[in-house]
Amino acid sequence: MNWDAKDKRQELKTNTPTGTFPYLVTPQGNVSESIAIIQYLAESNKPEMLGSNVWEKAQVRAWTEFANTEIGTQNRSLIYPLWGFMEYNKVAADAATVALKQHLETLNKHLQGKSFLVGNNVTVADVLLFHHLKLYFQFILVEDQRNKMYPNATAWYLKLAGTEPVRKTFGRIALCKVPLKPAKVEKKEEPKKEEKKEQKPAAKKETTGDDDEEKPKKKQANPLDLLPPTTFILDDFKKDFLNTTDKRGALDRFWANFDVNGFSFWTMLYQKLPSEGKILWKTVNSSSFFLQKLDPFRKYTFSVHGVYGVEENYEVRGLWMWRGTEIPEEVKEHDNFPYMTIKKLDSTQEGDKKVIEEYWLNLQPGQIVDGLPVAEVLYFK
After folding, report:
1. Stronger pLDDT, 302 or 181, i.e. the higher one
2. Residue range 78-101: average pLDDT?
3. Whole-number Å distance between alpha carbons of 284 and 306
4. d(Cα 112, Cα 79) in Å, to the nearest integer?
5. CA neighbours closer than 13 Å in the CB half-sphere of residue 276
6. How many domains does the chain have?
7. How many other C-beta atoms lie within 10 A of the C-beta of residue 150?
8. Could you tell me if 149 and 242 lie in one domain?
9. Which pLDDT band, with edges at 50, 70 and 90, does 177 fall under?
10. 3-state secondary structure of 64
11. For a 10 Å CB count at each end of the chain, is N or C smaller?
């Protein structure tokens, strides 16, 4: 923003009652906040858009809040980085994606057998929710997601997109074919520091042959790299398992080549507080932070980690296979290590082998793994 525009914005700010934008100038005075403006315009011109009775008015209000609070708040993590307005943050984006998915499932369920959110006509709730979802249908949600995961919400969206007021306002609205990737945010260059005046070189310090301070420190090797050689090649297994639709066949090949002396299996369970594990997106966020700090450890492991359970009772846990037969330093040094229950499995035992296969083969929501339904999990590879 240039300084003229910034000064103008500060000047206009005195006209808005709440000190925020946008605001609407009316004969009675100025109105600020988008929902209040929408309500004022609807009440003044088309009061039926606010609902035809007390119950409908309440429903319109509820879905209006849903649009602003639940959908609109995800823009910061999912939409702004696409345009370069904000720097992309994977952890925040993953959590926002889970939240958006959950809200779209709620919307899709509500719209079963309905043409509009409330009643038999367009209300301000439809208008505001369409406005927020338009960005996702244009830039993020591909055809398979729209038609298979959210068919009712998609039908509602397309119905509104085809109306004359929407076409007149936005023109023909394209649907997403390939998700838009986050733009790179250019970082401002720091002002150059003034060059210091040339100084006389300091006298060389006399050193002795055993002066260790003058010698560069050697980088210590990872203990996992110093283990005895193994016949099992982890990268080959990852490529085979992840690039095939026949996971069962890939897993059979895995067991045929697995080195029980070079790798081991472990379950991890986060010891949550009574206040944790209530809301899915918050629990997924916690799981993502845990994995983010283990990112350099990927070369030594193949694992499944995420959220299992149901609303109000989610668990963060996973099934890990890593190099070596003990708990590695990368895991021990993690901030959450004191709060993790880690148990070693014996892949030669049928019961433990079954648990391993359940984790690795079942990633779809609702599938049962070790007694709990999958909520949101992924391969850590």
Report:
1. 302
2. 87
3. 7
4. 27
5. 12
6. 2
7. 22
8. no
9. confident
10. helix
11. N
Which structure tokens are listed for 269? Answer: 């369970």
* pLDDT tens digits for range 227-277: 999 999 999 999 999 999 999 999 999 999 999 999 999 999 999 888 889
Same domain, yes or no: 152 and 269: no
Residue 100 lies in a domain: yes
Q: Which domain holds residue 310?
A: 225-380
**Domain boundary pick from 170, 196, 213:** 170
Q: Residues 6 or more apart from 186 whose CB is under 8 A from it?
A: 84
Residue with tokens 């729209």: 146
For residue 25, being part of any structural domain is answered with no
Residue 113: φ, ψ to 5°: 75, 5
Whole-angstrom distance, CA of residue 270 vs CA of residue 318 = 9
Each residue's pLDDT tens digit, 216-230: 556 688 999 999 999
Structural domain includes residue 356: yes
- Spell out the long-range contacts of 245-251 with Cβ–Cβ below 8 A and sequence spacing 24 or more: 247/360, 247/361, 248/361, 251/357, 251/360, 251/361
The confidence score (pLDDT) of residue 322 equals 97
In-domain check, residue 325 = yes
